[in-house]
Please model this.
Amino acid sequence: MKLESKVPTGSLPDKWTEYKKHQKLVNPANKRKYSVIVVGTGLAGSSAAATLAELGYEVRAFCFQDSPRRAHSIAAQGGINAAKNYQNDGDSVWRLFYDTIKGGDFRAREANVHRLAEVSVSIIDQCAAQGVPFAREYGGLLDNRSFGGAQVSRTFYCRGQTGQQLLLGAYQALSRQISYGAVKMFSRTEMLDLVVIDGKARGIVTRNLETGKVESHSADAVVLATGGYSNAFYLSTNAVGCNVTATYRAHKRGALFANPCYTQIHPTCIPVSGDHQSKLTLMSESLRNDGRVWVPKNPADIGKHPTQVPDAERDYFLERLYPSYGNLAPRDVSSRGAKRVCDEGRGVGAGGRGVYLDFAEAIKRKTKPKVEALYGNLFDMYQRITGENGYDQPMRIYPALHYTMGGLWVDYELMSNVEGLFVVGEANFSDHGANRLGASALMQGLADGYFVLPYTLTRYFADVKTDRKPVDHPEFKRHEEEVLTGVKKLLSIKGKKTTTEFHREAGKLIWDNVGMSRTKQSCEQTVARMKELRAEFWENVNVPGSHDNLNQALERAGRVADFLEFGELLALDALTREESCGGHFREEYQYPDGEAKRDDEHFIHAAAWEYQGGDKTPLRHQEPMNYETVKPSVRSYK
Amino acid sequence: MKFTIKVWRQKNRTDAGRMAEYAVDGITPDMSFLEMMDQLNEQLIKAGEEPVAFDHDCREGICGSCNMMINGQAHGPERGATTCQVHMRSFRDGDRLVVEPWRAAAFPVIRDLVVDRSAFDRVIQSGGFVGVNTGGTPDGNAVPIPKVDQDRAMDAAQCIGCGACVAACPNASAMLFLSAKVGHLGALPQGQPERKARVKTMVAAHDREGFGHCTNIGECEAACPKEISTEFIMQLNRDYITSALSAVVRG
Ligand SMILES: Cc1cc2nc3c(=O)[nH]c(=O)nc-3n(C[C@H](O)[C@H](O)[C@H](O)COP(=O)(O)OP(=O)(O)OC[C@H]3O[C@@H](n4cnc5c(N)ncnc54)[C@H](O)[C@@H]3O)c2cc1C
Ligand code: FES
Model:
C-alpha cells in the first residue's frame, strides 16, 4: 500500500498558506447539507465540533463521560506552547518548529510540524477571546514559563490547571453551538464500531451507556478525537477511562495504526504503593530544578530511613551519569536511569520501585519558605497521596506512562487511509515523532480542532457530493449486530477472573517488557504472552450484569478486550523497529555511553500497520519521512 | 484495615432503591476512597453480584466526575478535596461508612451512586460562554488585563462542575456553580458585552432545571472541593439586580 502524505509542494514555510489560498471551498448555503460525526470532546474534539458547527456543518458529538467538560484533557497542568515571542527572547515559528522536530528525534513529518508552529499563535488569541484566564504579569500582559526541550520561554499557563481552562473554553464554545441546535451532543455514549461502506467512512455504531441501546449514526465524515492509549499499560497518569477502543476498532475496519511503540514515560510520578493502585499521579517536572535524585549505594541501606543514610553512602546517579545536565536530564534519559538503579536492587519504597527526590539541600540554600513558594502545591499533593511530608524527608518518585505519540495514520489533511475518516489530537500519530515535548499536546489538539481540520474537511467536502447512507442500510445493521453479539459474548463467559485482573496482568507485561527499554526477546515474549492472555480472557473472564442498562463492568471489559489485542501490536511494532529513538529504547541499539542510537538509513519512516483479521500478523507499511529542510542530527544531552 | 460499607443500591431511574451493607477487609491506609470501592467491587463480582456503579475518571480531583456523600458529607471529611482525593487514612479502622449519591431533584439517580448532572450542561448552554467564533480574534495581548482581575477570574473558573454545592445545600441550590461561571466571565473584559444578558438567562435556566433558591446558608462553600467563595454569589446577586434594573430603565 502506498501511503500518500499529500504534503503540498513549495517551500516549507509557505505550504500551509498556499494550501489555504488554493483550496476549494463549500458554498455557505450547501454547508448545512454536510454532516459530521465527532467522537471525543477533549481539546481536539470540542474545538473541532464547535468550529465545524460555526461554519455551518451539521455536527453530532459523542463522549463516554457524563459531560463533554470531563474529558482527560482537563488534567493537563503545565501549559501550552506558542511561538508568540512575547518575551523578546528570540522565539519564532521556525524555532518552535525546530525544537518540536528535534524533540521528536526526527521521526515526525516536517510539514505538519511547521503548520502546527504557525497556527500556535492563533490558539492563544482564540483562547484569550473566549475568556481563558491565562496567567498575566502585573502590567496586564500574558506571562510565560519555560519548559523542557527549549531555550526560550513560550509556555502559556493558567496556574496549575491549563488543560482545565483550555478545555472549559472549548466546552463553552461547544455549549454555545449546542444551544443554537448546531451540535447535537451525545454524552454517556460510547463508539463501538466504525462503518465503512464502499471504502468510505459512513458512520459509527454506538452504545448508550445508560440504557445499553446499540444504534447507528450516519454522516458524510467521521472525526475521531478519542485520545491516547497509555492505559494499555494499566497504570498510567491518564484518566481511568482513557482507552484505545475507538481507534483500534477503526483499525480493524481498515484504518492503519502508525508507530504504536512510541510512548512517553514521565520521570516524576508518585510511585506505586501496592496492587490496589488504580492510577498514577504526575508531579510537575519543575521539581527537578531543585530536587536531587538519589538511591543508597549499598542495597543493604534501602530499608533505612533516608535521613539515616549519610551523604557519602548515597548515589546521586543522574549527577554521576550525566554531569552536565545532572538532575535535569531529559525525560527518557532520567526515567531509564531510575529503572537501572532499581533493577540493581537499590530502589526504595514499596516493591523497591522508587528513587528519592531530595530537597534538603535546596531548603538549606534557599530557605524553606522559598521552596514552599515555588512548589508548595506539589508538596501538598504529595502529602495528600502518600501521607509523607516532603520537607522533612525526601519524596519518592518513579517513572510512569504518560502520553502516546503513536496513533492512527493520517495524511497532511488529517485524513486516515480510509476516505472520510479524520483523526485529530492524541489519537493520531502525526506531529510528535518518537517523543513529545512538554506543553505541545494541548497545542496540537487545539491546532487540529480550531485551525486545521475546519480547512481540510472543507476541502474534502468540496470534492464529494453528500450521499449519506440511511441507518437501516444493511451494512449499518450488520455492524450493529456484530457489536451486540460482542457485548453479549462478554456477558456470557462467566469465568473466574475479573476484567481488572486481566488488565493489570497485561499492563504489567507490557510495562516490564515494552516500557522504558525493550529488547528483541522481551518484545517477542510479549507478543506470545499477549496471545495467551487474550485466549484466556475470552474463556475465563467474569463480567456481571446485563447489557440493557448502566453496566460499568461491561464497558470496562470491552476496553480491556481491545487493549489485549492492541498490546500485541504495540510489542510487534517495537520488535520491528530495530533502532532506538525518542521514547523507543531498544537495548541492542545504544552508544557505549548508553545514549539512544538511531538508524536513519533504515528507519527514518513511520510504520503504519494494516489489520489482517483474527490472529493473522498485521502488515507493516512505511511512510518515509522526507527531511527536505531540516538535517537530522544526533540528539545528545551529555 | 476493616470497614463496614453501607451503600445506596438502585437499579435504574425508576427503582425505589435501598441501602445495602458490605464488609471490606485488607484495606491499607494509603488506598484512596475509590480504590477501596474498587476492592469492594472486585469482591462483589467474585461473589456473583453486580458491582456498585459510581462515576469517576481522572482520580486526581480535576474532572469533577466522582461524587459521593460519605457519612453525610459531600466528598467526605477532607476539606478542599474530591472523593477521589480522600484516602483511607482519614478514617478509623473498623469504621462504618455510609455512602450515598448526590440527592437533589435536579440530579436524578441513574444507578447506585451515579446521578444525572446534565442540568449543569444546560445551565452553561444558556449563556455560560463568550459569544465569539473561531478566527478573527484580536492578539492575546491586545487587551491588557489587570492581574487582580485575572486572578479573580481564575479563582472562579476553577469550578469542576461536580455538584457538591448542590448536594450540600439544604435547598439543593446551584448558585455557587452558577456564580462561579458568571463571576469568571464577569471579571474579564471579554465577558463584558454579554454580562447583563448572561446573568439573566443563566439564572432563568438554573430555576427551570429545578435547583432551589439560595438562602445564604453557606454549606456549598464548605463542601466545594475547589473552595470557591460565596462572594461570587453576592456578586451574582448584584449583577442580577443591575441587569433587571437596566431592563426597566430601557423598558
Ligand atoms: C497528567 C497529565 C498532564 C498533562 N499535562 C500536559 C501539559 O501540561 N501540556 C500539554 O501540552 N499536554 C499535557 N498532557 C497531555 C494532554 O493532556 C493530552 O495529550 C491531550 O489533552 C489529549 O487531548 P485529546 O483531545 O486528544 O483527547 P482526550 O482529552 O483524551 O479526549 C478524549 C475524548 O474521547 C472520548 N472517547 C474516547 N473513546 C471514546 C469512545 N469509544 N466513544 C466515545 N467517546 C470516546 C472521551 O470521552 C473524551 O471526550 C498531559 C497529560 C496528562 C496525563
Ligand atoms: S475522578 Fe475526577 S475529580 Fe474525582
